[in-house]
Specification:
The protein has helices at 17-20, 46-49, 70-78, 90-99, 139-146, 150-158; strands spanning 4-10, 55-58, 82-85, 102-105, 115-119, 124-127, 130-133. With 159 residues, it is an alpha/beta fold.
């Protein structure tokens, strides 16, 4: 995977899927623009501030709550390229990988607004010279994310 450089949006512990995308927004007419509603109850206006390639950094248990694929999908639609958290809810972690969103477990003290570089191939996050390390993915998971998720990988192999 290639290196990612982006602006950081910082969140705390236990960010649940209802905070990421409220359940009442999960209607069929909204599915193509879920990004308009991310974090609307906890950080109104955030979608208009996010740029393609930005990165979320959070604490423990990111993505807890309801097991819906809409949460990581909405973050991808918004332009989020990577989520770094101390830990993830298991189903959110798996849903993210299955749709091609890079999620990294790593404790950092990176501040909101910082521009950081994530090097998935070498397991490094760089913030103004400070380096944090994380475990690299096994090759098969790296392949899923690189191909854009499980279904994209399968479709590519069927052709």
């Amino acid at each position: 995977m290639k290196k990612i450089t982006g602006k950081v949006w910082r969140f705390g512990d236990h960010v649940d899927t209802d905070q990421i995308i409220p359940a009442e927004r999960l209607m069929s007419e909204n599915l193509s623009h879920l990004n308009d509603f991310i974090f609307e109850k906890v950080r109104p206006g955030l979608p208009s501030e996010i740029s393609k390639g930005d990165i979320i950094v959070a604490g423990k248990n990111f993505g807890c709550g309801s097991s819906r694929e809409h949460a990581p999908r909405a973050l991808i639609q918004a332009g989020i390229s990577c989520i770094i958290a101390e830990s993830f809810a298991r189903i959110f972690f798996r849903n993210s990988i299955n749709i091609g969103l890079l999620v990294i477990e790593c404790r950092t003290d990176v501040k909101e607004g910082a521009t950081i570089t994530v090097d998935p191939d070498n397991g490094k996050i760089t913030d103004k010279g400070k380096v944090y390390t994380f475990s690299k993915y096994p090759e098969f998971i790296d392949s899923l994310i690189s191909k854009g998720g499980l279904m994209a990988k399968i479709k590519g192999e069927i052709k």
